[in-house]
Amino acid sequence: MREWSREEKYRYLKDPQELAELYEQISKSPYRQTFHNQAVTGLMNDPNGFVWHDNRWHLFYQWCPWGAVHGLKHWYHIVSKDLVTWENLGVCLLPDQEGGYDNKGVYSGSAMPIGDKIYLYYTGNHRDPDWTRRAYTCLARLGNDGWPEKYPLPLFGAHPDYTEHQRDPKIICLPGSNKYYMIIGAQTKDKRGCALIYSSGNLQHGWQFAGELKVPGFENFGDMWACPSIERFDGRDVLLLCPQHITLPGRGGSQNHNGYILGTMDWDSLTFTPDGQFHVLDFGFDSYAAACANNLQEEDKAILIAWMGVPDVEYPTDDEDWSGCLTLPRELTIRGRRLIQRPLPELKKLRDERIPLPENKAGCFVLPRAAEIELDCRPGDVRLDLFVDEEGKGGLSVIYSEEEKQITVDRSGMRIRFNETEGTSRVRPLEFGLFHLRIFVDSSSVEIFVNDGDAVFTSRVFPTDREHFCRISGDTFNRVWTLKPAVKDEFLI
Questions:
Q1: Where in the chain are the domains?
Q2: 298, pLDDT greater than 90
Q3: Which of 73, 80, 206, 459 has the fewest CB atoms within 10 Å around its CB?
Q4: How far apart are the C-alpha atoms of 475 and 450, rounded to whole Å?
Q5: Is 222's pLDDT higher than 70?
Q6: What is the pLDDT of residues 350-392, one digit of tens each?
Q7: What CATH class is the domain 352-483?
Q8: pLDDT of residue 297
């Protein structure tokens, strides 16, 4: 794996043509996705600024141009009219050089459209000459001409009672209120994860520290809370967060998680009262930094998208100088004490051709590089082996045990293995058994939706040339479609 010097990681982009050769190299990779947003070059991670404005969905992502390294971050801008097909608009926010408040990175944040502008809230990662980190919450304004205008001064700096790890501002507007809130991920000086709340009557100025968010029962839950948000839909409040450096049951050696707590938020006392435990959003191996669209007008659901990756790990395409993609957008609703995540109905537009499933001697059929698989399952054991070879060996296994009432996803059979210290299998109990699977396969990923969104398993996979077969066993009714491209993978900086 390549070792990056500080100078290489934090090199400023001066001319798009500096990346032209890298893009040409990356575009030849067999692992470039067909219908998922991915890094145009280099590294992609957190989705940012997810909003509806000017008859389009706007989404930005964290982008380091030079390679698969967490170095100098930018915001890259993509748009869609239907959340299915996407278009690159190019880099939007670049770090200022030298003494700027974001001189070493435009870090994650959110957005709010007002009038004909989108206001972009982000963490400015500043480093002094001695490399001391200083975090600033910054603001930029994006007009319909596509040009961002950074405000000359930050809205505020890091609060002195916490460590320098203060980032990922999420802007919140309460219906019927003339006050705005901002929630920021943070770390106490004794290394406990928390969230800070700021408030103002104006989006552009006047922000004051309101206090630390109180979440009874979660005072010692990881050493940092990244990407926190409080969403309200379906008559309930939901606290989304990414607790770091903590192990959870059933999550192998993973130290970084993305999940949620259902409860009730009291903005007067800044108290989120949990109604139950912390749940992971995604039971798979590779999902983090989930963000909800900020101005959805429907009160019974939310729309979520996440980074299909996790921090502090490596991926096989790192050696090709690129890494990262985003999950498919999911529709969130609440059922009982759980979030339900369903693929958007619009994704059916991607279906190209329903294909027959002729089996070879090993009971396998050819798995398209971009496909949707749907299974209706009757009572009994079910097994689905994806990315096996022609003899049915290896691959990623989806196994449901009727006796144990649980589903297991195991990728240990893949020839290209990675991040094995994070664990090679994930399990989810299914109290009422298995009745439905809907699976989206792309060149280097798989997203498995269980029982109409009751559980989701998202994972990166990197099949070799031999690993393009599938085998299904159990009492199931199966349909498979090839899927059309949905992303213009073009060189636009």
A1: 6-335, 352-483
A2: no
A3: 206
A4: 16
A5: yes
A6: 999 999 988 888 899 999 999 999 999 999 999 999 999 999 9
A7: mainly beta
A8: 65
Integer distance in angstroms from the first to the last C-alpha of the chain? 26
| Whole-number Å distance between alpha carbons of 78 and 58 | 6
Q: Predicted confidence band at 263 (pLDDT cuts at 50, 70, 90)?
A: very high
The three-state secondary structure class of 164 is coil
Whether residue 40 contacts residue 492, with contact meaning beta carbons closer than 8 Å, is answered with: yes
Pairing mode of beta strands 322-323, 42-53: parallel
Q: Are 191 and 166 in contact (CB under 8 A)?
A: no
SS (H, E, C) 275-331: CCCCEECCCCCCCEEEEECCCCCCCCCEEEEEECCCCCCCCHHHHHCEECEECCCEE
Identify the pLDDT of residue 192.
98
Overall average pLDDT of the 54-64 stretch? 96
Task: Catalogue the E-assigned strands of 361-468.
Answer: 365-366, 371-377, 382-388, 395-401, 406-413, 425-429, 436-442, 445-450, 455-460
What is the rounded (10 degree) CA torsion for 283, 399, 390, 463? 10
Length of the chain: 493
46 a catalytic residue: yes
Of the candidates 384, 441, 386, 388, the one whose C-alpha atom is nearest the C-alpha of residue 407 is: 384
Asked if 263 and 241 touch (Cβ cutoff 8 Å), the reply is no
6-335 sits in which CATH class?
Answer: mainly beta
Asked whether the domain spanning 352-483 has the same topology as the one spanning 6-335, the reply is: no
Distances in whole angstroms, Cα of residue 194 to Cα of each of 120, 212, 263 = 23, 7, 17
Q: Which of 164, 79, 172 is nearest to 121 (CA)?
A: 172
Give the chain's mean pLDDT. 95
Residues near 385 by beta carbon (within 8 Å), at least 6 away in sequence: 392, 395, 396, 397, 398, 413, 470, 471, 472
**Active-site residue (options: 15, 46, 96, 266):** 46
Count the neighbouring beta carbons within 10 Å of the beta carbon of residue 90. Answer: 13
